[in-house]
Automatic annotation (TrEMBL), chains A, B:
The protein, known as: Long-chain fatty acid--CoA ligase
Source lineage: Bacteria, Bacillati, Actinomycetota, Actinomycetes, Pseudonocardiales
Domain AMP-dependent synthetase/ligase: from-to ranges: 8-371
Pfam (any one): AMP-binding
Native organism: Pseudonocardia humida
Entry superkingdom: Bacteria
């Protein structure tokens, strides 16, 4: 099994159908096959040999799609850089991966000098944008024109297909190495649920393609055939327009994007009734958003995919039918057709249903390992089980409910407090726009439950008020004993709150380091 | 990825749902998990170690299902024996595989002495039937009762999952070794087509479970969750009754079985409208049968799966929508979501669309190899491509049309004649019930086109009549120059005509051996 297999299949079965639609630029599958084989030839001529990492730092585009096929075609290893990171972090990942070649677009070309300075391994830059070619960079279209197609390496199976960097929320970035089989297992297993991707349909890429959430949707769309509709980045209007204009049937979004899409006044004019499947991840969707979404998207089925990059990335699916059951809407779903999932204690023993423990998963979708980090790999994957670091419990029907990151659990006065539970209670206060709950050092309680709150525009509240509100909903020992008000919460590239950063100022001097 | 993963998932998500329905015997998934873990313990106690082959020779049953899970659970390798073979052939396969342990049911217990005599490797027999335990055999239920569950070995990935013997139509049986990943790729890829298996539905096992056609449906049903309804063997009435009584949603049949099901007077009383998916293989379905089937099964979608054991077994799928297009009904479908398929010449170069060559396939579904036959493996799998031995062509949309076994092609007077084409023409004569066309030695033509014909009851025809009839449909040089009439055609376990046997009497003295 190899990532490029689907390209051969699409070019064989639907050569004249659109492979990619990116603004006004439409490429057929037969064009795509030709261009990928030329780009692979160019990469070879630039010295890319078997197993060499080739990076990209770019907004979404049809050339990103070509990159995703061309690197494995050339027998290289994909290394998509996180566009939300600073140049220093990006340079770290390129240097760590040993990526000699980088594709970069207009949006990120200005960061090149800083990246080059901090990533000396980088010797070749290919400009895949449409504007002026930066100094010292090669032009993408020139390279394609200058090279004849080469045959596909067709390497696959357990060989590394790519390295995706992760760790933004928990510390030093780590490269997650995934094989071709890893990625295909997750994609085919998810598609086998029958509720994931319309066969032969059109998938919109609005979430960033560097992230494996969208990357995995790309693999699944290729597996079942169809067309990629691509927008450079998410905007509510851009997404609505693309859905209406290009007959998009499927889209992957994070919950924040769903909310923005259904609430945006400037997106209201577009007909979204062609949308069949909306896949979302990163966090459950609130009932309020789901209700508004059901009105705006009356013909769309919702599927939640839970997992992580290390799981290629899907472990559980919450299917459309599950969304119609009240008690299940807070769940992350059940083990997908390719995955085994269980909840274990610190000794890796399975805990009884309903008991909180760590969510672990096993199967063909578990990563090969962290790039050059055997100790971290051994710590994360034990006896074949990937330890997600997420705390959760499972009900009697196998539905998984995520309660917290294990590291975000607060031990206050000897009691476990799940920050997610406190956050849900806090969020019900009308003055709270968004919030994060962390543990901070406390001489009396060991850790103290502390809230970091963004107030709604024009709203006011005191820490005492919020504590009293919370106590009406959950046990008193879980209510925040202190609170601070901020303008915004720090977010990772995947839209997750960076609690590490929130904790830093409280823990920098204490004996519990930031982990 | 491991075959037992789906058992854990089902027991976790639907512990009280039926895993198997076999006559009056219903077992839930939690019972099934317990029984499988006990059977695995029993196998271990019988000396089955990692990688050891464990055989079964039995009609379909719920215990066959338990065997399929228990052997990998115990870290053994499945070795399902072909129930249609003679005791000598079965013994050959057991001896070849080195299977020390054999499960056998009532139907095949009488063959034990002959098998034991010819397969000295066999030292332990477990009786999995319901009648009297044969002398020297251990009783299945006693073994389960006597052993406590052991943990699942959870070995999978590229490790061998089983050995399926094949070769009945072409000569010496060969053991096809398939890995866990092989089987799961084919199953998930087929299910990802969205037209294969009703999620959470009920699959009827009426085709023999030893054969990988049904075995693969078993893997796919487990992957998407649901229930196995099992009948000991195919009878039209038994199948119709099971569909109507047990809410069967999916079934795998070979075309002959479809014809018998829709035509059988004693099956007419049953309501079959619950059947959603009918998967068939082995050969295309005739328009006449399809029309009758559409009337009898008005709510059923038809999917053809083409492949072979060596492809785990699916390479192409002809989906329900394809069946509604006249010209596609003779096709074998297009490359499935897990497969690459092409048509090549004798030098392995891809031929132009419409040109006949050998059908080859590549992907994660290609077997590990033939058991202990590296030369045959190297001959069959070249540069990752499994060579099917089937002749066919591909149209401009990637649809594959199988014309013949490469070995069944006749070269007469320097012209290639595809026996399938001649057979299709012959079969249109009202007196012909079934037929096979072979090449026989001829001093003038090299090979002569020869027909072996089963006449319809009460019908009559002469070789000259059949030749003249055929010439009205296809070129004169393709029409049979001779014919013989027989009562029945020899069939393989998979229902394929054994042309090798038909050719034997003509070729035994000639220089072209039976291949």
């Amino acid at each position: 099994m190899y990532l490029t297999q689907s390209l051969h299949r699409a070019a064989q079965q639907t050569p004249d159908a659109a492979a990619t639609i990116f603004g006004d630029r439409v490429r057929t599958w037969s064009e795509c096959l030709d261009r990928v084989a030329r780009l692979a030839a160019a990469l070879r001529s630039l010295g890319v040999g078997p197993g060499d990492r080739v990076a990209i730092l770019a907004l979404n585009s049809d050339r990103y799609h070509e990159y995703l096929f061309a690197v494995p075609w050339a027998d290289g290893v994909l290394t998509p850089a996180n566009i939300r990171w600073s140049p220093a972090e990006i340079a770290f990942s390129l240097q760590d991966a040993g990526a000699r070649v980088l594709l970069v677009d207009d949006a990120f070309a200005p960061a090149l000098p800083a990246i080059r300075a901090a990533a000396p391994v980088l010797d070749t830059v290919v400009f895949c944008g449409d504007g002026a070619v930066p100094e010292g960079a090669l032009a993408y279209e020139d390279l394609l024109a200058a090279h004849d197609p080469v045959p596909d390496a067709r390497r696959g199976g357990d060989a590394p297909a790519g390295i995706w960097y992760t760790g933004g929320t928990t510390g030093t970035p780590k490269g997650v190495v995934l094989s071709h089989t890893n990625l295909l297992m997750s994609a085919l297993g998810s598609a086998a649920s029958g509720e994931f991707m319309t066969p032969g349909g059109r998938l919109l890429h609005a979430a960033p393609m560097f992230h494996l959430a969208d990357g995995a949707a790309w693999v699944a769309r290729n597996a079942v055939g169809g067309t990629h509709v691509i927008v450079a980045m998410f905007t509510p209007r851009g997404v609505a327009e693309a859905i209406a204009t290009h007959g998009v049937t499927d889209v992957l979004l994070v919950p924040t994007m769903i909310q923005m899409l259904v609430d945006a006044p400037d997106a209201a004019e577009f007909d979204l009734t062609g949308l069949r499947h909306l896949i979302y991840g990163a966090s459950p969707i609130s009932d309020a958003v789901l209700e508004r979404a059901a009105k705006r998207l009356p013909t769309t089925e919702f599927t939640q995919a839970y997992g992580m990059t290390e799981l290629s990335p899907v472990a559980t699916l919450l299917l459309p039918a599950d969304h119609r059951v009240d008690r299940l809407r807070r769940a992350a779903g059940r083990a997908a057709p390719h995955a085994e999932v269980r909840i274990v204690d610190a000794e890796d023993t399975e805990v009884p249903r309903g008991t909180v423990g760590e969510i672990v998963s096993r199967g063909g979708h578990v990563m090969l390992g962290y790039w050059n980090r055997p100790a971290e790999t051994a710590q994360a994957v034990r006896d074949g089980w990937m330890h997600t670091g997420d705390g959760g419990y499972m009900d009697d029907e196998g539905y998984v409910f995520v309660v917290d990151r294990i590291k975000d659990m607060i031990v206050s006065g000897g009691e476990n407090v799940y920050s997610a539970e406190v956050e849900n209670a806090l969020a019900k206060h009308p003055a709270v726009a968004s919030c994060a709950v962390i543990g901070v050092p406390d001489p009396e309680w060991g850790e103290r439950v502390h809230a970091v709150v963004v107030l709604a525009p024009g709203a006011e509240a005191t820490p005492e008020e919020l504590r009293e509100h919370t106590k009406t909903l959950i046990a008193g020992y879980k209510a925040p004993r202190s609170a601070e008000f901020v303008d915004a919460l720090p977010l990772s590239g995947a839209g997750k709150i960076l609690k590490r950063e929130l904790r830093a100022k409280y823990w920098s001097d204490a004996d519990r380091g930031v982990s």
